[in-house]
Amino acid sequence: MKVLFINNDGAGFADYVEVEEGTTVRSLFKKEVPHGQPEGYLIRVNRQPAAADQVLQDQDRVSFTATKIEGAA
Amino acid sequence: MSTKTILLRRQIRTAVQIHSHLAGTGRFGPIPVLYDHEWQKLTNTVRRFEFAREKGWQAAADSLLTQIDLSAASLGRRLDRFRHELPRNPSPMQVSGPRDIAADLAALDQEFVEVQLNLQEKKLSVLTSPIELEDTYLGPFRIRLHWEEIGQGPCYEVIAEDPHPADANDDVTHPHVSGETLCEGEGSTAIRKAIAQGRLLDFFTLVKQILETYNPDSAYVSLSRWSGGRDCYDCGTSISDEESWCCSRCSESVCDGCHSSCAACDETLCGGCSASCQDCRGILCRGCLEFRPGSRVLVCNDCLEKGEESDDDETPASPEAEQPHEGCPCGAAAPADSLRLEETLVPA
Q1: B244 class by beta-carbon count within 10 Å (0-12 exposed, 13-18 middle, 19+ buried)
Q2: Mind telling me how many Å the CA of A13 is from chain B's nearest CA?
Q3: B201:A11 CB<8 A
Q4: How far, in Å, CA of B5 to CA of B84, rounded?
Q5: ipTM value greater than 0.90
Q6: What is the pLDDT of residues B271-326, one digit of tens each?
Q7: Secondary structure (3-state) at B301
Q8: What residues in B contact A49, CB-CB < 8 Å?
């Protein structure tokens, strides 16, 4: 199945990715942000805060946005 | 018609307008400036080369040919840069559809304190909760997007609703906001991409997260100086008023790590106004150091007296004391402050 995966870290990424049936938010996060800690991100499924064990559905919109993003001067 | 229905309709109309802009002219950023003086320079040189060749001026033609080669290479590099700076053209697939944009608009209501849609002025704004960074209250901020400006340059502003600007600069309402412009730092690319693709919830969320993050290494005004703090005169570290020490001699502010106290008079000193006794190595102000008579060795009063006692016993107090006496024949020590580098003691 496909989900719209949005990673707002760094250069930003937004595209449909193929995931296996039964994929949870936690496993997608581990796969896509291997060096990140979930508590450092706003994780949303279909624009709503999501639990780590939420199972993804086909065509879901999943976004990861870092809670700390450093501005500059 | 219920308020909810009216709001929903407004959201849909806004979403359609934004999508239409993004899928149309909004896809295109401004074209970089193409200067033609390099092209003119090249064609002029070619003309001069043809003239020299017709005249049979071999040396001039050789020189002009080299110039043509250089000018052509320079023009080529400029055209490459021009191509590189051309606005990218995202495919229609990359731009969110009106349905997704409308869903983002609805989600903004849950994410922010207030959402305002202005269809006539083509503005969409959200209001954040009050922001406080490291115990400094900055108040709520309004993030206002001008959707018709997307692709034309800066298209949003960040306005302090209850401004608590830095004492040093009224324009700076947040460590990373100056004159209603946010310096996006590491969020820059993600923000640009979110705007270009019409992912409005992501755009506003990214801006909010930057506003809620403090980067002390790159701020318009650091939070430690927000309410009248300053930079350490010696090391440049930002220090608050409570953390700063004022040098008694030059009145500059220094941090805890850079300040010292004169061992003799206990005055607070910055690095530039302190010196050490060359005998005991104690830190003193320059006013409490004196030249050992007949030498250029700066010592404290205690060491000076010890040295004099030793001199009476004909025992040198330090290696410097063994140096042949020179300078003031009367033996009076000049105060340290009265001498500068490159100056010498002049006999009275």
Answers
A1: buried
A2: 8
A3: no
A4: 46
A5: yes
A6: 888 888 988 989 998 888 888 888 888 888 888 888 766 655 544 444 444 343 33
A7: helix
A8: none
